[in-house]
Amino acid sequence: MSAEAADRVAAVTSSRPGTPLQTSWFEFLLDDSLLEKHLQKSNPDPAPVQLIIQFLEQASKPSVNEQNQVQPPADNRRNRTLKLLALKVAAHMKWDLEVLEKGLTIPVLNMLLNELLCVSKVPPGVKHVDLDLSTLPPTTAMAVIIYNRWAIRTIVLSSFPEKQTKPGPHQINMLNIVQQEKEMTENILTVLKEQAADSISVLEGAVRLKKDFYVHTMRTLDLLAADTAANGETESSTAGLRISADELHCQVHYDLGGIFFHQGCTDLPIYEKARDHFRQTKELLKKLDSTVHVHLDEKRLAGYWNACRALTGDCDPSDPQTTPYDQINSLIRAHNYPAVIEAFIKDNISRSLPNHFRRSVLREFLYKVQQGESGLDEVCHKLCVCNGVRDALEGEILSVRFQQLLLKPSKEVVDFILEVCTRSLEKDRPSEASRRNMANFLKTLCESLEDLSLVFVVSSHKLFMELLKEEERKVLVEQMRKRSATINLSAKPLPSFYDIPASASVNIGQLEQQLILSLEPRRIRQILIELHGLAERPFWRVNSKWEVPPDYINVILGIKDNLTKDLVYILMAKGLHCISIKDFAHARQLFSACLELVTEFSPKLRQVMLNEILLMEVRAHETMAAEGSKERPPPDLVSRVRGYLEMRIHDLPLRQVVGEECVAFMLNWRENDYLTLQVSPSLVMNNPYIKLGQLLASTCKELPGPKESRRTAKELWDVVVQICSISIQHKRNSDGRIGLIKQRESSMGILHRSKFITFIKKIREPLVLTTLISLFVRLHSIVRDDIVNEVTAEHLSIWPSSLPNIQAVDVEAVAVTVKELVSYALTLNPNNQSWLITQADIYFVTNQYSAALNLYLQAGAVCSDFFTKAVPPDIYTDQVKHRDYTRVFIC
C-alpha cells in the first residue's frame, strides 16, 4: 500500500468504525488491474458513474504555475490516464446512455463523450454531418452515432419539468459551484439545440447503413493506451463489442422518434415523422431475438405510439389492432360521446384502460365545459359515474367529484348509476370480490342519498336484492328511514327544545366518538358524510388533539366545501399523529387517501401532501436505521429527497422540518457530492438546515482524501461560531464609563443553538459527527484558553486557532454543546476510540477524574482487544500517559 493510501486509511478508520473503506480514485492510477476487479463486484463502492465523475473531476482540475496563475489542466500522462479510466468505466457499462444520463450531469457526459470522439480518431474540425459513416472505421462511426444520439436525447430530456439533477465534478477556485454548473449546462444545451438538425441528419444516415457496428470495449481502449493499435486492430471490422444493425437501428429510431415528438409541439405535421420512427422501433423489437444492446423504456414507447396515433388521427375504431386508447380518442374526435360512455361501461368489466387515463378523459370534458362548450354537463356526469363505479369495484376511495354528484342527484342520475352497476358486473360468474365491493357501494349509495324516494329506488332494484341479504336490506332501509325522520325534524325553522329528538344528539355523539377512534380512511369519510347529514358544523374541531402544522392551516381552512375541508384536516392530523408514535403503516394509508382527495381539486395541497409523505418515508427509513437496519434507502426515496431540495414552486407553504430531515437523511447516507454541488442557491439562502448540510458535506467530502480542505472548514466554523455567539450591547454606566450587556439566545446565527442541537441529534453518520466534535473541541479550547489541560479530537488542524471577537462567544453554550454532542455520539457507537478519548479529556478538564480514568481505560480496552495487544500511541498519547491520576484517589 502506498503512503498516500495508508494515510487515508488511518484517517478514516478511527472515525468510522465498521464502515467499509471506499476505494479512492488515485488507487486506480497505482494499480492497472484494480479497475476491472472493482467493476466486477456485485455492488462496487464507488459506483461506476461516481468513478467517472471522480476521474474526470481530477483530470479537469486547473493547475497553478510558479507565479500563482491558474492554468488550464495539463495534458500529461496522469490526466490522459484518468480520462481513459473514465472511458473504460463507460465501456464496462456498454455505453448505456439511459444509465449514464441518470447518473451524470450534462457537462460531465459532454466531457466524457468528447473524449470518446477524440480517442476514436474522429476527424477534428469536421462537422459530423459532413462525415460519411460508411467509410469510417467501425468504432469511429459508432462514437459519432453515440454522441449524436446523446445530443438529441439531451434536448428532449432538458425540456421535461422537474428533471432531476445529479452530482457532477467541481472545480477549484469557484465562488459559486452550482451557478457555474448551471451556466455550463445552459451553454451546452444552446449548442446542442443549434446543431439539432445536423445530429438528426447523422442519425438518419446511420439507419440507412445495413452493416453491423462495433463500439469500444475496455480491451480496445487498453490497446489504444498502449499504442499497440498501429497494426490496425482497433480499426478493424471485428474490434470492439459487436452491435447488430437491427439493434442499433431500433435504438436510433426510438431516439429520432423522441426528438420529432418533442418538435411536434410547434409543428404538428412532425408528429407523423415521430409516429413512423416509433412504428419502425416496434417492428424491430418484435424482430429481434435478443435486445441486450437496446436500452429503451417499452412503456414510454407504448405511450409515445398511442399519443402519435391520437395526434395524427391514424386509428380506425373498427381495426382489430386498434388499442382501447385509440378507440376512445377516435370517438372523442368524432364527437361520438354516447359511444365514449358505452366504452367506459364496458371497460368496467375488461379494465383495460388505467384509471389515470379515464380520469384524464373526464378532466378533458370538464375543461371543455369551463371553456363554454355547451351540452357536455350530462356527459361529464355520466363519465364521473362510470369512473365512480370502477373505483367501487376495485375497492378504491370514491372521488370527491362523485361524492358531490350524490349530494342532490336527480332520479335520472340514480337510474344511470344502477344501470352502470348492473352492466359492470361480469354476466356469467362475477368474482366474489366484485360482488362484495359492489354490495358495499350500493349500501354507501343508500347512506349518501337524503331523498327517501331515491333510497327506495336503489333498495328495490334487482341488483340490490341479489347482492345484499334480506337481513342487511331490512337493517339498511330502517336506518335510512330513521335518519330521514331525524333530518326532517332537525330542519324545522326555530324548533323548541322538546321538538329535537334525543336520538339525534346521541347519534352525533356516537359518530364523533367513532370519528376520533377510526384510522381507516374510508370509514372516516363515511362517518363525516353521516355527520354532515345530521348537522352543519366544523367537525375538524371535534378533537382538540388534532393538529396540523400552522404552515398549512390557512390553505386547508380555505377549502370551500365543508365536508372536504373536514376530511382533509382530519386525515392529515391523524396521519401526523401516527408518525409521531411510529405507526407508519396507518400513516401511509391516511396520507395516501388525503393525497388522492386533494389531487382532485388543489395542486397546492397535492404538493403539500407529497412533501408530508416524503417526510414520513424519510422518518420511517431513519427509524429502521436507528433500530439496527443496514439497508440503504431505495433509489426512489433518495431521488424524491433530491427533488424536494431542488423544488422551486412559488407560493407553496413549506415546513422547515421537511428540509431539515431531508438534509440529515442525505448526510446520514453520505450523499455529500449532491449536497455540495446540486442544491439550489435560493434554498441554501432561505433554509438554514440546507446551508448547514452543504457546509458539513463540503468539509466531510475533503476529510478522507489525501489533503484536508481549510476553505470549506472555515465557512462551517464561522456559521457555528455565530450560532454560539451572543449579542453585545454597549451601555453607559452612571459613572460615565461604557459597559457591556450580553444577551443570551440572540438571533445572530442562522438558527438558535437549541434548534442546532436538535438537528445534530438527527445525524448518525460517524464522519459528520467526528467533524462536528472536532469543531466544538477546537472552539472550546479557544474560549477556555487552558494550554495545560487540552481536549483532543481528530482533524483539529483544519480549524482556525483563534477568534477575532472572543468576548461575543457564549462560553457556557459551547461547553454544554460539546458535552451533549460527544455524549450523543457515544450512544450511537460506545466503542469509538476517538470519541471515548475526547469524552475522557472533557471529564478530566472539568475535574471529573474518576469518570475520565474509566473512559481512558475503556478506549484502551477497545483498541487492544482488552489489553491483549499494545495500545496504539495515538490513543494513549503522552498527554494521556502523563496526566495526574492521583487526583482520582484524592477525590
TrEMBL record:
Pfam families referenced in this protein's UniProt entry, alphabetically: TPR_INTS8
Residue ranges of domain INTS8 TPR repeats in the record: 505-883
Gene Ontology cellular-component annotations: chromosome; integrator complex
Entry annotated with the keyword Transmembrane: no
Keyword annotations of the record: Chromosome, Nucleus
Record's subcellular location: Chromosome; Nucleus
One BP annotation, GO: snRNA 3'-end processing
SUPFAM superfamilies linked: TPR-like (SSF48452)
InterPro entries: INTS8, TPR-like_helical_dom_sf, TPR_INTS8
Main localization, broad class: nucleus
Domain of life: Eukaryota
PANTHER family: INTEGRATOR COMPLEX SUBUNIT 8 (PTHR13350:SF1)
Family stated for the protein in its record: Belongs to the Integrator subunit 8 family.
The protein's name: Integrator complex subunit 8
Native organism taxonomy: Eukaryota, Metazoa, Chordata, Craniata, Vertebrata
